[in-house]
């Protein structure tokens, strides 16, 4: 299994090198929408097509699913890869951080969180880095010329939280969630929100804290996709010693019925996730 997982991560790193190099010429919007009804950028399409092609070429990869396409692309193999090819891609217009998210499952999507055997993300920041989680080992890499070099072989969430960032418009937040945010502010945490989940979660991984995209008044399921965004990022943060939640339970305990299903997503230090869940439960 570990050879397969490393082959998937090597492939994602290789594609990430190419994605990075073509971004400047793929900042325009395409006519098409993805299955979540969001307009695609040329870069979303490029990253998705390259990942599908290269990952399905690996003998052990039996299917490829992505935020940018309807169904599964199937082959034969024991492992199933679900990707957000370009996370936070609207940041390409404003030249801010973006990422690529990958979840490796031993069941075909729609799959439960506990079918994840590994997960990782690439962060296209001032430098390109990659964070992978396999079991309880979380590793950070520098990605250069499409290859990985270890920067930190044992990434753990800092014990003292420093940053927070929550998506959605504050007037659309449920009252109980707004109460929790007030408490987080009063706790001296500072706001860091950039609009790309990978970049925002990487701040939490670096400084400690909490990131979330909550349930909204007109959209109780929130915005983020469980299979492509919530599950893999929850797996990584939990492996680094943190916690995840949909407001009630760990994201890894959830099974989508549709691969594009959305869920409220919260990840970060476990004490903050506990406080969030109890504040929301008290309001019931
Ligand atoms: O623009 P908003 O509402 O703050 O949403 C930001 C969130 O949406 C996303 O951009 C969705 O990801 P995609 O770009 O992959 O659709 C997350 O990365 C981010 O956390
Ligand atoms: Mg995304
Ligand atoms: Mg995306």
From TrEMBL:
GO BP: fructose 1,6-bisphosphate metabolic process; fructose 6-phosphate metabolic process; fructose metabolic process; gluconeogenesis; sucrose biosynthetic process
Cofactor: Mg(2+)
Pathway given in the UniProt record: Carbohydrate biosynthesis
Annotated Fructose-1-6-bisphosphatase class I N-terminal domain residues: 30-144
Top EC class, one word: hydrolase
Main location: cytoplasm
Subunit structure as annotated in this protein's UniProt entry: Homotetramer.
UniProt name for this protein: Fructose-1,6-bisphosphatase class 1
């Amino acid at each position: 299994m570990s050879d397969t997982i490393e082959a998937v991560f090597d492939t994602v790193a290789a594609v990430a090198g190419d994605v990075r190099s073509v971004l400047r010429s793929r900042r325009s919007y395409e006519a098409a929408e993805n299955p979540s009804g969001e307009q695609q950028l040329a870069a979303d399409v490029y990253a998705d097509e390259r990942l599908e092609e290269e990952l399905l070429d690996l003998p052990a990869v039996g299917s490829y699913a992505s935020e940018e396409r309807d169904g599964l692309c199937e082959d034969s193999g024991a492992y199933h890869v679900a990707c957000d090819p370009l996370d936070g891609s609207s940041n390409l217009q404003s030249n801010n951080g973006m990422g690529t998210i990958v979840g490796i499952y031993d069941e075909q999507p729609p799959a439960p969180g506990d079918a994840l055997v590994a997960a990782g993300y690439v962060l296209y920041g001032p430098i390109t880095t990659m964070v992978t989680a396999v079991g309880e080992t979380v590793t950070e890499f520098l990605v250069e010329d499409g290859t990985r070099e270890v920067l930190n072989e044992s990434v753990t969430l800092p014990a003292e939280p420093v940053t927070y960032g929550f998506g959605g418009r504050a007037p659309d937040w449920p009252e109980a969630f707004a109460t929790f945010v007030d408490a987080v502010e009063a706790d001296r945490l500072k706001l860091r929100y950039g609009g790309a989940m990978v970049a925002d979660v990487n701040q939490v991984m670096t400084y400690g804290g909490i990131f979330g995209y909550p349930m909204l008044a007109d959209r109780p399921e929130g915005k983020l996709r469980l299979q492509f965004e919530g599950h893999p990022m929850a797996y990584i943060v939990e492996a680094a010693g943190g916690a995840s939640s949909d407001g009630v339970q760990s994201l890894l305990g959830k099974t989508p019925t549709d691969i594009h299903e959305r869920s409220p997503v919260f990840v970060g230090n476990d004490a903050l996730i506990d406080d969030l869940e109890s504040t929301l439960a008290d309001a019931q």
